[in-house]
Fold this protein.
Amino acid sequence: MTATDGGRDLVRCVEVARTYGRGAAAVVAIHAMSCVVPPAARVAVTGPSGSGKSTLLHLLAGLDRPSAGTIEWPGLGGDPVDRPGTVGFVFQGPSLLPPLDVSENVELPLLLAGFAASEARERSSQALAMVDAVELAGRLPEELSGGQAQRVAVARVLACRPRLILADEPTGQLDAGHRDQVVRALIESAAHLGASLVVATHDVAVANQLSTQWQMRDGRLTCAEEPARVPHQAFYPVSDPGESC
Ligand SMILES: Nc1ncnc2c1ncn2[C@@H]1O[C@H](COP(=O)(O)OP(=O)(O)O)[C@@H](O)[C@H]1O
Ligand SMILES: [Mg+2]
């Protein structure tokens, strides 16, 4: 079985498009795009603001539905909407629940998934330590800086130990030290979990730490390539890799 075998790929998108609005107001965020997230993928999705990175990640997660084309999740056993916990999503904007403190925010998905309170607390502590946020455990979201909230949002995903981690600009508000720590936590967790990791980022320093680059422009994947400096890893194909590749 190859890395791109249909029975194991975590996500397969075929001619997927997403248009917001209708008629004269319609915005084509994603033009017909085909791509695959195989097992053990480490993908950076790069491109200017408005190029469709967030829309693509939402589609890969099953949080949004395409206007055309098909998305399948063979390696996850089906649609992630029906399989809570299989996909972890770090949102670009604020996502912590205001009435809950940091620990409770991280523990909540675990409690909803049926874990015992002690196990949820243990996993929460471990995940917060991975992003240097242990000292924030008792704070409310309104008492956090944007960067601190971003680190907690990453911890919440890592605590759930998903098989596919999608992170949308997870380091946009972090200083260089915490940026590197969060990226390391994402990569190490993905390796530990046997998960695939897809990170949308503006930051070249983040993208360079991932073995595959997907470049987006105007809703199109213009280039998908594996840097030459990372040999012996699977190439992740797209149907139209574009002339720049
Ligand atoms: N909910 C929405 N309604 C209308 N247009 C949207 C919506 N979300 C995104 N867009 C538009 O879709 C395009 C892609 O947006 P997005 O996926 O957020 O790009 P990126 O994450 O690369 O900045 C942009 O033109 C944006 O304005
Ligand atoms: Mg975005």
About this structure: Residues 1-7, 227-245 have pLDDT under 50 and may be disordered. The chain has one domain: 11-238. The beta strands are 11-20, 27-37, 42-46, 68-72, 87-90, 164-168, 196-200, 212-217, 220-225.
